[in-house]
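Case study.
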Amino acid sequence: MTAGAPLVAVRDLSVVFPVEGGVVRAVDFIGYDIAAKRTLGVVGESGSGKSVAALALLRLVAPPGRIAAGSIRLGDLDLLALDEEAMRRVRGARIAMIFQEPMTALNPVFTVGEQIAEVLRLHRGLGERAALDEAVGMLERVGIPAPAARARDYPHQLSGGMRQRAMIAIALAGRPELLIADEPTTALDVTIQAQILDLMLELQDALGMAVLFISHNLAVVSEVADDIMVMYAGRIVERAPADALIARPLHPYTQGLIAAVPRLAARDGDGGALRAIPGNVPNPLALPPGCRFSDRCPLADDGCRAAEPTLVDVGGGRQVACFKARP
Amino acid sequence: MTAPLLALRDVVKHFPAGRAGWFARPATVHAVNGVSLEVGRGETVAVVGESGCGKTTLARLAVSLYAPDAGRVSIDGTDVTGLGAHALKPYRRRVQMIFQDPYGSLNPRLPVSAILAEPLVIHGLGARAERRRRVEEAAQAVALQAGQLDRYPHEFSGGQRQRIAIARALIARPELLVADEPLSALDVSIQVAILDLFRALKRDFGIALLFISHDLAVVDLIADRIAVMYLGHIVETAARADLFRAPAHPYTRALIAAVPAMGHGKRARGGPKSALKGDVPDPIKPPPGCPFHPRCPRAEDLCRRVAPMLDPVAGAGAGHRAACHFRDEVAAMGAP
Amino acid sequence: MTRYVAQRSIESLIVLAVMSVVVYGLIGLMPGDPIDLMINANPNLTPADAARLKALYGLDLPLYERYWNWLTAALGGDFGYSRLFSRPVLEVLPAYLGRTAILMGASFVLSVAIAIPTGIWAATRPYSRADYVINLLSFAGISVAPFWLALLLIMLFAVGLGWLPAGGMQTVGLDSLADKAAHLVLPVLALTLLSVAGVTRYVRAEMIGVLRQDYVRTARAKGVPERQVVWRHGLRNALIPVVTVLALDFGALFSGALITETVFAYPGMGKLIYDAILGNDFNMALIGLLFATLLTLVGNLLADLAYAKLDPRISYG
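After joint prediction, the assembly is written out as follows.
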């Protein structure tokens, strides 16, 4: 993995949601590290648990969901043992999060400048006037033209790309060590997405943050991540440095995902025919026996259906959870 | 030479914006501004663009859900612009639409069999037994099982619902399908399956397809010809291979460069692929001259004053046209 | 914005004018008139006398002529003479208006002051035992019949315990503030109990919806203390529809207390209009009803303006 202690260490994390008919294990005993100053991409489709895992880091899982087991350490701080007040001081200041839909994630009745200033007042102790001035500065930092005027605008007056930049400004105002980005560009047009990705890379470099970048779009993740973690039905199925994962995926689900991404033939080469992954993501209340991917996997055999594979190190900073993977 | 199946000529569609009232200030959304487009028999034409470019409005003009403010719409040589509902009916059977939202486009109160049979009933195609047979046939064509026909839409996944929508569009045996962002609401692994379905339909039934999308990578897999839209104008149109090999409009180049690339490592920041500046434009206040000039890396004074025409690119493939004063130079730059 | 207010004001005046025609017509179509009442009360009145009196008061003229006479007089500021009080309408009205204003104003302020914190409290612990109790009480408040509640209060506090007066505005002969206040307690209590229930349910529902929104999650992710999340980020949004509903209620302010005022014999606008209609006091009834119309229109306009002020996404013009 990386030298030195990780910034965030997650071990045996489980997040459950009681529903009619049982308990959904949205995140089922996962463990991973986030290294300081590096970007970890998390890829998964619906039901993979990727968003829930991120919310768990901030202890923001919406009730009746709850963290059922595990530990989350930020440096040498045990996040799950903190009281609410101490956790509040972590949120926004040491770990910050941006969300998918900037229109609904911003409060419609406060100006953009005010929403940034709030973080500055809460976590950096600035007074009202100073916070608003600094907020304008932050808007400029995230590439919004005419920042003083935009700071007095309400969210609905800004375009989608501007709103997402404003969200990034809010997240960065507290100078966090870790930025969690949950599908930050999914709702944006592709040329705006490119701008936002450029911005995030630039800011990460300048501010030395770690980034947890969550998306269902493997191509987008591969453009920003140093390492990529693939999740399926609440488990981590593979983790590797980004280039290695794309060039030589080891888990059949990862292979399936890569084969299912449409790409520009003229630019990126054909890479083999486009293939869908047969079947559907499993119902969390009726998971297949053994490996959760076994009912859709071309390599599955009786051994796969009998027991669940665990995530094992296979060298080169790579981990796979598959009996059939050959490194 | 036979008439194209669908021909839009210089269609214009504007919508009123802002509050109505006695003293209202008029504002107009210039959704579609003089677009001409043709779809030949069995051909797949893709219209690509981002938010506000007018592609959805264009799709609705193509199926006569809207009547254009100016310009003409013709189907198989016959001018159908502004025809009343009754006169339009036979043409409706020949041109069908598939919408973006598989959750909103199916009536939740009808079982799938009724949803599929509805077009047959409306157009008076066949008695009950024949309808039942065709419903089963359509379901099979989209890989839905006959046993599922009595279920309701909410019992199906997004991908399955989109299949139902496609089956419904196909059942009256149309000659042209207009698909408005049919994959956007679906999971990645499902998108491929639906895309395959479209390709199979092309192959097996020779259906023409007008495919609206924001995703160039998807369009690369299915289109014969591509039209790029920006702020209600078509800024470039070309055969698929030509468009990607030598795009002749700066917006097309930017659009291609912006498609996330897998396997090329992390983005090079500020490099030659660096992103287009500025925001997606506001169709209420379109800029003068070339609609793209505020964001264009090569814009000059001419571009601010004179709107370029959609004219052929020198030395390019047949039918390759771009609306840029510098189209030949841009094309010469090759693939982005 | 001024354009909008101008447009709405013109529209309101038109509605008011139309309403004046409608109400005048309806009243005029009622069987009987003040003179008929006098005939019933006084057997000595001969038909000739009756006819003379009717001619004197213009009651034998056709309806549209009477309306026109009324309208021209009203536009000049003369609202006519109240039969019931034997004084000009304009002299009688203000006192009644004032008393209803006190009654309704007090109960309005009280209900809002109770409903908002209660609704928020219930919304932050939905489906808990406390929430169920609040819901139960709210349902009770909405379902209970106003006159029954009023009578119950009278029985309990006035008759049973003897703590408070059973009705009226003041004790005869006394002119003290404390006495008047004591007379207000039960009517205000009755009205408050009735309206606090509805407002509480509304606040609770809106808050539950708001607390589910993405921007509330963002606020928590920013490390905003929970108290501020609820009261600043949440309430500010939930209040938008609540305030508009309250502003609409404002229109009902003056006529809505009819039943309560009658049971408590409290001399307010509701009772005034009621008595005027029963006593065939055309002028008073007409003005009273038109005033209620005017207030409803003003309430509507205030609701829309409040909505635009509170919600930056809404703008007129």
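Observations recorded in class. The interface with chain A takes residues 213-215, 217-226, 233, 236-237, 240, 310-313 of chain C (CB under 8 Å). Chain C has a mean pLDDT of 85. We will return to this complex in the next lecture.
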